[in-house]
Amino acid sequence: MPLMRAIGVIRKSRGERWSREEFEELLRSAGYEILAIVEQVREEHPRYNIGPGKLEEVKKLVKELKPDKVIFANRLTPSQAYNLWKELRVDIIDKWQLVLEIFEKRAHSKEAKLQVELANLQYELPLVKEAIRRIKMGDRAGFKGMGEYQVHQYLKHIKYRMGRIKGELEKIRAEREIRRKKREEEGFVLIALAGYTNAGKSTLLNALTGEDIEAKNQMFTTLDTTTRRFKVKGKMLLVTDTVGFIDGLPPFIVEAFHSTLEEIVKADIIILVLDASEPWKEIRRKLFASLNVLRELKALDRPMIVALNKVDLISDEDAKEKELLVRETIDGRANTVGVARISAKLNQLEELYNLIEVALSRLPKFQTFEIRVKDPSKLGKVLSMVHSMGDLLEVEYSEETKIKAYIQTGLIRELTKLGVSLKRIS
């Protein structure tokens, strides 16, 4: 199947941060052949987003290159999208519709497909309302070739379908909450991997757990949450991979993927993954973009470890300098435990393991208990559980063995099932 052909348009205000390389990578990830990229530095034009002069330049390129679509790196208002379509007479989409096209290609699970459909409908809703407004004003542009009656019916369909999807996603969210509570009762600590798309989160999950989850050097490989077990110095933990962030992630995508992003909000510890192999300017931009999403999710109070990934691609001196810059940048902006230099690809994770240990020690769910075991046949099982979910501090063997241990409070229920007695001592 031949690639769709596109002209990209980037408009930025003076001083605004934009990455042309990232926009081009988005286009390629969505399956487009890039015919041309048009750039302009100016404030937003209310009618066309770009200025009238630049619009004429794009119009000439459309006639010459005959693209399937003109794709804007900026968010277009419904009015701007219609005005541009009337001038260019070719499909017009913006960066967020482009992202949703990539999401559609990557979605595999029922939940991911529902979330993508919901986001698409939320994106289309204002466009359909704009079409209805224009029809009432006498503009017969319609929407996707639809007439007035069809547009009104499609609006009803969107609202109905959005209601159904939200109901289905709520059921999935409730099921996930039940599983999450069960894990907490069993004493597990949940760690969420968060960060910019293509930072290496899936590769890190594989390195931590020994799994072989799909991890490609492309944007938005992961749309489905994946949770796996792993151990840090004998402690059994759970780690969840989540959908990648992108600069300026709009509220309608955050809302559509709320049930997935909720894994970050509910996590005990967040590992924020950054690609250390990029220039500092890009790392800083992506760090702020990630922090903005975490702020919107109200997750910045969670203990956070920043993992500077892909340090195998840069020198030690460069890695140390970027670690220092990250520390200075993030200071005071999040509940940061520390910064770890890692290579998930080469399984160089010692600094990360050490910081996870520090983060675990700060969790209120870990406390020191005295455990008394009367039945000697249960002693081995008790010691095994303590080692898996905490630290064994002291054992006094006698007719009634006394164990002093620093354990996850979720273990209390499981331990009492073995007939032991527990007393909190700190």
From TrEMBL:
Question: Mind listing the UniProt keywords for this protein, alphabetically?
Answer: Cytoplasm, GTP-binding, Magnesium, Metal-binding, Nucleotide-binding
Tell me which SUPFAM superfamilies the record gives.
Answer: P-loop containing nucleoside triphosphate hydrolases (SSF52540)
Query: Cofactor(s) for this protein?
Result: Mg(2+)
GO CC terms of this entry = cytoplasm
Superkingdom of this protein's organism:
Archaea
CDD domains for this protein: HflX
- This protein is called GTPase HflX
Q: What is the lineage of its organism?
A: Archaea, Methanobacteriati, Methanobacteriota, Thermococci, Thermococcales
Which gene is this protein's source?
hflX
